[in-house]
Design goal:
Layout: E1 14-18, H1 23-28, H2 39-45, E2 66-70, H3 84-101, E3 105-109, H4 111-118, E4 126-127, E5 137-141, H5 152-166
Parallel strand pairs: 1-2, 1-3, 3-5
Antiparallel strand pairs: 4-5
């Protein structure tokens, strides 16, 4: 199955970083394409997008200052199918992308994505006090998978912190709202 292309540009407001593409995303070539994934609804409800975008419009979000990548590019049924070797290679590649493109905020879509990237065992939601990549604010958000049991209002509230931050209404540099 084909990898999904990253949507990157220099100095994005937010770079969204997932585990890896779903099989559905791999089939159609777009990020967060599984119909049970709530990513596009969360972005809209949190105020990050002016309307609800479709996965097929993922590249259009570059115009809003948002990009997409994954820690592992190979589509799988689930994150449990990613090998340790893939994570190791993905971490190194992700660090290179972050250093090269310098997004203002790196948003890790899921605590597991951030723990794989950072090597930290425990992290809280929101902005991380000690970022791994110097000069980039790191934000940990809940996974948008339909399997997540957290109430949607709580998930949207965490993502709303991103919306407030890029509009200058919220989080202070390095603040952790855990």
């Amino acid at each position: 199955m084909n990898e999904i292309p990253d949507h990157l540009d220099y100095r994005l407001s937010i770079l969204f970083i997932g585990f890896n593409p779903s099989l559905r995303s791999g089939e159609v070539g777009h990020h967060y394409a599984n119909p049970r994934n709530n990513f596009w609804r969360i972005l809209h409800q949190s105020g990050l997008t002016p309307r609800r975008y479709a996965a097929s419009e993922d590249r259009d979000l570059l115009k809003l200052g948002y990009g997409f990548t994954n820690i592992v590019s190979r589509p799988t049924r689930g994150a449990e199918d990613i090998t340790r070797e893939e994570y190791k290679a993905g971490r190194a590649l992700l660090r290179e992308k972050l250093q090269k493109y310098q997004p203002q905020i790196a948003c890790f879509v899921g605590k597991g994505v951030y723990t794989e990237y950072s090597g930290r065992q425990r992290v809280d939601w929101g902005f991380q006090a000690e970022p791994v990549t110097e000069g980039i604010r790191e934000f940990v958000a809940p996974s948008s998978s339909g399997l997540v049991r957290m109430p949607m209002e709580e998930i949207v509230g965490i993502y709303r912190q991103l919306s407030e931050a890029i509009r200058g209404e919220g989080a202070i540099e390095g603040e952790d709202r855990g």
